[in-house]
Amino acid sequence: MSSSAPPRAAARRGARRRTAAVVAVALVGPLSACGSDVGADDDTLRITANITDRASMDAVVAAFGTLEPDVELSVTYAETDQLQKSLPTRLASGDGPDVFTVWPGNGNPASVMRLQADGRLHDLSARRFAVDLPHDAASVVQVKYHTFAVPANYSGIGVIYSKSALTAIGADTPTTWDQLIGLCHRAREKGTTLLALGNKTPWVTQLVSYALAATTVYGTSPDFDQKMRDGDATFAASGWKTAFEKYLTMNDEGCFSDDPLGTTYEDTVADVAENRAVGVVQVASSLSEIQARSPGLELGIFVLPAGNAPSRTRMPAAISAAYGVNAKAEHMKAALAFADFLGSAAGQNAYNRAGATLPAIPNDDFDVRPALAATAEQQRAGKAVPFMDQLWPHPGVQEEHFAQIASLFAGRTTVEAALAALDRAYASDS
User: Are 325 and 126 in contact (CB under 8 A)?
Assistant: First the structure.
């Protein structure tokens, strides 16, 4: 397997009409290299979004264009790591887009709470969608009861898998840890890999540990985050130790790609789409990207089991994507109109029908896709837990988590040392 990302298509442009244009630019280099968004005119609304949400944002842009034909748009897509590192700098320099991906909560430098603290986000509290926010959405896009982002989707972290690939190895979806490990062995015996793992891409490193910790930590201690804030719990003396140990056990048992640290996110998408792996532990929105590479592939999602009592299995599921408006947007009227549309039932449904996600602001017109049944079931049953980093006190904890998982897979540290490092990061100021 290649250890580098597959080449992407060069920037592509739709032909401009006299009254409207939709331009989709695939970012190849670092976000900072893009400057003020390639090719965007001074009268163009500039949007920057995560590349994993491309299908969803393309759908919203197309739908918005039919309602607002006089608004020209330029959409730039970037990798998660690039956005988190470069977006705050661009906003600070005055070179930021009008509308952009922000992460709910407080887990990274491009999260709602961090950007709001720096004065980078326009207050959206007066917009119509802000009145309808459910509690779980409001808790991660509001600061002191003021709304600073439009929550776009509700997504889960689970195993996205090819149904034909699972059938080909003569197996069913596992519901227990023992079944999961047995399935890893069965896949190897059949000449394939159960789970593609792209730990060369830093943000991917967290996903398996989150999926395991949902059960090993929150299955027995649902108030764990509050205990951490109160100083009554630690990473080292909790189910996080079990999660890290099981993560490494899965690697030892052949569950993952042969060289996770040499495999990228893009590689894993290709591996599932091209039947080199049965599935991948990912945020559900990646389902649409796999589907785009292999339109005829029937995909499903199952919850990653971390124990042998299915009733205790939990799934990380929460508001996944959100969008903020630049506090100094050059095209504020158009930016707010776009935010209004994204927060409407029509915008929410366009975004989530194109992706493999659920509306962040529920409405009666959205039909849940079969592939999303596991996520919806966990949500209804109260067996979903927040994405862990959304409730961490600062981005440094997530960054330490990335580094420690990479070190574990490289054999440079131990589980005990990795958890101690996370506790030190949690206790620090940044």
Answer: no
